[in-house]
């Protein structure tokens, strides 16, 4: 009897997930411990590890398929010496997202995973092509853009370096920019919010330069608690003068957007931060993202 | 074992053999980290005559300036808060005389007039800031607690107690990131020393070996609360040991001792060995701020400090013993009084900022 591989629940709240990618093909030998697929949950992309031994006989859910229900059969493994199994009765369950979406749009094809989505937004210049991406990747890409553009930008926070971000919001940044610019901190948010601000304040003024219009080191500090979701802080600052003390206290900018099944969030608010036109397509499992920008008042001093 | 005293906790004595080799290793690793020994070797800076005269002049400038500021406050020309540095002059002057002003940065709390004056910044623009005039160093928009001069690498001037310590950690990180060879001197008080983010900063500073000298200006009172009443450990220089930061205890009423301590601490930091925690024991003669009636201490205590520990008098004594005449020193005082009077006049007559300044220095870019 073939072994049914079922969609695992990779977090306690997960009910559906996206089967992002298969790492094994039909006919491949499977050993216990092999990574079979990457599954996107409401919180992160997780690796699906095999515990059985055999040959991957049939893939029933294609890569890129969204809204695969937990416990749906996604593939079949034939044990050694088995015949080709029959197709099982149970079909992978899918949610019904289409009618919930307010605007008409092209449903991204499951195999390519990327398609342009038409969204009317007056803030975006005509002719801009849009891409659909996850909030997590949009945040990461925005940080990477800024870090490539300006060598003074660094990111600092809990698990941002080696762990790639508690929910992978800084994935790949350590490899690209190195440990000087991607800094793991202890769990001391108040401390490094201050250290980030101070670094931004101190770096810009140098060699008796007159007040420069561009900000000094922009420190992106990312406090992430274990139960929270990707949070990032962009500190726009040059050198603070009056009210600096208030801005220190108020400095966390946490970015998390609640996306309910089927809704599309306007990109203008996030794109303002990310400087990237993007659309965020809702994931039915619910990626948290709500934007809360605390009050701050970065200022320049007169020099 | 003798009978324990009533009320003491008696711990069973561990036989030495029961300790594993690892424990002994750990114990010797846990030591009270301290630079005190190095400091004791040269406890008073061997200043030249010229250096001492300069220390004298600078401390006296702070003293007279602060006295004048107190006066102007009483006349209603200075509003808001005004925290005077009278009595603590030796700390700022001693430490900042050892700085490399091309590279090093400084940050402190709200008792910042002295630190600003130590840079040699024109007292006129500082007094004008106190009186809220446009010619003030923060365009009259900061006041006593928010004086900045990024040109001099002085980053304030902060109202929130203890906030400047984490910021100072950041300034040090910037020095390290830019590899500019600079260090950060971060001052805070005995009250601020109990803030949580101070220890968060200690941890990260030690972990990453940030080039920072933490200076606790222990003037024995956190506003109305004596440090004995608010701190379990009043020897603040010991508080870094948990993070392996060496400490130093310094007599903050002796400018030559403070300067000597600076030499030891800065050498340690510049050698890349990480932060230092320096405790400067000092005293403020006036209340916490101009609004403080200071009923929490006796007049006798304050007078005793004035009579026996005054930093300016101490240096004056050293100078006179070294051959300077009273007249030389009086001449300095006279010149300073004139300078301060001119600053006060300027601060009283200088124009206030235009109303349009309400909209400037608020946002970095237009939104």
Word description of this protein:
- Chain A has 303 residues and is of the alpha+beta class.
- Chain A contains five helices and 16 strands.
- In chain A, helix 2 (173-177) links the parallel strand 10 and strand 11 (182-184).
- Mean pLDDT of chain A is 66; it is low at 89-115, 205-218 and 221-303.
- Helices cover 43% and strands 8% of the residues of chain B.
- In chain B, the strands form two sheets. In chain B, strands 1-2-3-7-6 form a five-stranded parallel β-sheet, with helices on both faces.
- The N and C termini of chain B lie far apart (75 Å).
- Residues 4-8 of chain B have low confidence and may be disordered.
- The interface between A and B is large, with 48 and 49 residues.
How are the SSEs placed, and which strands pair?
The complex is a heterodimer of chains A (303) and B (367).
Chain A: E1 3-6, E2 16-22, E3 29-30, E4 35-40, E5 45-49, E6 54-59, E7 65-69, E8 73-78, E9 132-133, H1 135-149, E10 154-157, H2 173-177, E11 182-184, H3 189-204, E12 219-222, H4 244-249, E13 253-255, E14 264-265, H5 268-274, E15 279-281, E16 291-293
Parallel strand pairs in A: 9-15, 10-11, 10-12
Antiparallel strand pairs in A: 1-8, 2-4, 2-7, 3-6, 4-5, 6-8, 13-16, 14-15
Chain B: H1 21-29, H2 36-41, H3 49-74, H4 89-96, E1 105-107, H5 113-117, H6 123-130, H7 163-178, E2 184-189, H8 196-207, E3 212-218, E4 221-222, E5 225-226, H9 227-230, E6 247-251, H10 255-270, E7 276-281, H11 299-309, H12 311-321, H13 326-349
Parallel strand pairs in B: 1-2, 2-3, 3-7, 6-7
Antiparallel strand pairs in B: 4-5
């Amino acid at each position: 009897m073939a072994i049914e591989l079922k969609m695992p629940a990779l977090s306690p709240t997960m009910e559906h997930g996206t089967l992002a990618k298969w790492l094994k093909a039909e006919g491949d030998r499977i050993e216990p411990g092999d990574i079979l697929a990457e599954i996107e949950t409401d919180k992160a992309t997780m690796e699906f590890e095999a515990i059985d031994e055999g040959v991957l006989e049939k893939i029933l859910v294609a890569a890129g398929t969204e809204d695969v229900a937990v416990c749906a059969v996604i593939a079949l493994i034939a044990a050694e010496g088995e015949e080709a199994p029959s197709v099982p009765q149970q079909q992978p369950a899918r949610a019904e997202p289409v009618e919930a979406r307010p605007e008409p749009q092209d449903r991204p094809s499951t195999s390519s995973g990327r398609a342009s989505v038409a969204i009317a937004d007056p803030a975006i210049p005509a002719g801009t092509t849009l891409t659909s991406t996850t909030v997590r990747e949009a945040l990461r890409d925005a940080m990477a853009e800024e870090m490539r553009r300006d060598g003074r930008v660094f990111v600092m926070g809990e698990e941002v370096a080696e762990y790639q971000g508690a929910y992978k919001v800084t994935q790949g940044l350590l490899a690209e920019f190195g440990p000087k610019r991607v800094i793991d901190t202890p769990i001391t948010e108040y401390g490094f919010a201050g250290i980030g601000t101070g670094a931004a304040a101190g770096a810009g003024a140098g060699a008796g330069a007159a007040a420069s219009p561009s900000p000094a080191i922009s420190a992106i500090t990312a406090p992430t608690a274990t139960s929270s979701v990707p949070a990032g802080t962009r500190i726009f600052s040059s050198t603070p003068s009056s009210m600096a003390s208030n801005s220190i206290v108020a400095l966390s900018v946490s970015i998390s957007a609640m996306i309910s099944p089927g809704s599309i969030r306007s990109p203008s608010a996030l794109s303002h931060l990310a400087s990237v036109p993007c659309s965020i397509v809702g994931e039915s499992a619910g990626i948290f993202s709500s934007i809360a920008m605390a009050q701050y008042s970065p200022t320049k001093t007169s020099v | 074992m003798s009978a324990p005293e009533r009320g003491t906790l008696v711990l069973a004595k561990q036989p030495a053999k029961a300790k594993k080799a690892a424990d002994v290793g750990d114990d010797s690793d846990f030591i009270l980290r301290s630079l005190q020994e190095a400091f004791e070797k040269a406890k008073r800076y061997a200043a030249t005559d010229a250096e001492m005269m300069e220390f004298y002049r600078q401390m006296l400038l702070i003293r007279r300036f602060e006295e004048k500021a107190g006066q102007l406050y009483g006349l209603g020309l200075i509003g808001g808060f005004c925290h005077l540095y009278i009595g603590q002059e030796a700390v700022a002057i001693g430490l900042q005389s050892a700085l490399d002003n091309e590279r090093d940065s400084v940050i402190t709390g709200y008792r910042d007039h002295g630190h600003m004056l130590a840079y040699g910044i024109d007292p006129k623009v500082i007094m004008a800031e106190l009186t809220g005039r446009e010619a003030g160093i923060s365009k009259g928009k900061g006041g006593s607690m928010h004086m900045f001069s990024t040109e001099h690498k002085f980053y304030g001037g902060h109202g929130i107690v203890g906030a400047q310590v984490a910021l100072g950690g950041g300034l040090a990180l910037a020095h390290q990131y830019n590899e500019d060879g600079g260090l950060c001197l971060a001052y805070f008080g005995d009250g601020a020393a109990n803030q949580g983010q101070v220890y968060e900063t200690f941890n990260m500073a030690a972990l990453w070996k940030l080039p920072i000298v933490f200076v606790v200006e222990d003037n024995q009172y956190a506003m109305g609360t004596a440090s004995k009443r608010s701190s379990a450990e009043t020897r603040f220089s010991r508080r870094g040991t948990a993070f392996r930061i060496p400490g130093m205890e310094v007599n903050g009423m002796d400018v030559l001792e403070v300067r000597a301590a600076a030499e030891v601490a800065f050498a340690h930091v510049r050698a890349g060995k990480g932060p230092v925690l320096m405790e400067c024991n000092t005293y403020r003669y006036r209340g916490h701020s101009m609004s403080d009636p200071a009923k929490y201490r006796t007049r006798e205590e304050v007078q005793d400090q004035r009579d026996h520990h005054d930093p300016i008098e101490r240096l004056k004594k050293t100078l006179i013993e070294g051959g300077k005449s009273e007249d030389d020193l009086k001449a300095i005082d006279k010149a300073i009084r004139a300078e301060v009077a001119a600053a006060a006049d300027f601060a009283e007559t200088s124009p206030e900022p235009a109303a349009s300044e309400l909209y400037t220095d608020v946002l970095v870019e237009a939104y």
